[in-house]
Specification:
Radius of gyration: 18 Å
Shape: globular
CATH topology: Rossmann fold
Number of strands: 11
CATH class: Alpha Beta
């Protein structure tokens, strides 16, 4: 079941306002490499990165299970330059391979079970070109996220100001449950979500099972080393078994 803020058009229209261009997006543009590289953006959302790469000349496929998010992507001025596909990370099946595969915006944490994670990694492995690379990030579970999770912001939408609030509901082992509350001029909307905070060793074990290998793990978007006690993100760069031979 998709969360409300991924499938309600009124909420997807706000997505780029509070998740717009950032240093994270710059990192993935650099990762994509020259325009001769083909790119698969899994869980592409509103297509912010995918459409930028398509505009720069890459062959880009963007996949997401939320049709409302993909409608935003298609309506971008450069939206017709990419191929948009309705599919989950676990079920995507295309008859081609890609030089670069990415999963951005902490979408990796929506993979809640061992089965979800393994299925998604196998999808990546099957779609990766022999010399290709994969990149994704996930929040470091060693950080105290309870003290930094809640926030409130004001968004300026075309229909007027919107107050957005994120509130932690509960933490159960590796699962974090939270809600997003939206105050529109004409009413309120609520969305509830659950994320999994995967441990690094768990991810690496599943990568091995999928015949994928860690090339680098960064701790920030400038390519700094990962520090388990300080880094907020674990940014993985992955190679297939072919690249290791």
């Amino acid at each position: 079941m998709l969360d409300e803020h991924y499938r309600n058009p009124k909420l997807t229209a706000l997505y780029d306002l509070d998740s717009g261009w950032s240093i994270e997006r710059d990192f993935y543009v650099r990762f994509a490499g020259p325009p001769t590289n083909s790119v698969l953006d899994i869980a592409c959302g509103t297509g912010l990165i995918a459409s930028r790469l398509a505009q720069e000349g890459h062959t880009v496929f963007g996949a997401d299970p939320a049709t409302a998010m993909l409608e935003v992507a298609r309506r971008r001025p450069e939206g017709d330059l990419a191929v948009w596909i309705v599919a989950t990370a676990q079920t995507l099946s295309l008859k081609r391979r890609f030089d670069r595969i990415m999963m951005t915006g902490n979408a990796f944490q929506v993979l809640l079970t061992e089965q979800d994670l393994q299925a998604a990694l196998l999808v990546m492995q099957r779609h990766l070109a022999p010399s290709g690379r994969i990149a994704f990030e996930t929040r470091n579970p060693e950080i105290d996220w309870t003290s930094r999770w809640d926030y409130q912001i004001e968004l300026k939408s075309k229909d007027g100001p919107v107050h957005e609030q994120r509130k932690l509901i509960a933490i159960d082992n590796e699962l974090l449950q939270f809600e997003l509350l939206y105050e529109f001029p004409d009413g309120r909307l609520r969305s509830e979500s659950t994320l999994r905070f995967w441990k690094r060793r768990e991810i690496e074990q599943h990568l091995d099972s999928a015949r994928l290998h860690v090339a680098e793990v960064y701790g920030d978007w400038n390519g700094g080393p990962f520090d388990s006690q300080k880094s907020a993100e674990m940014i993985f760069i992955i190679e297939g078994s072919q690249a290791m031979t």
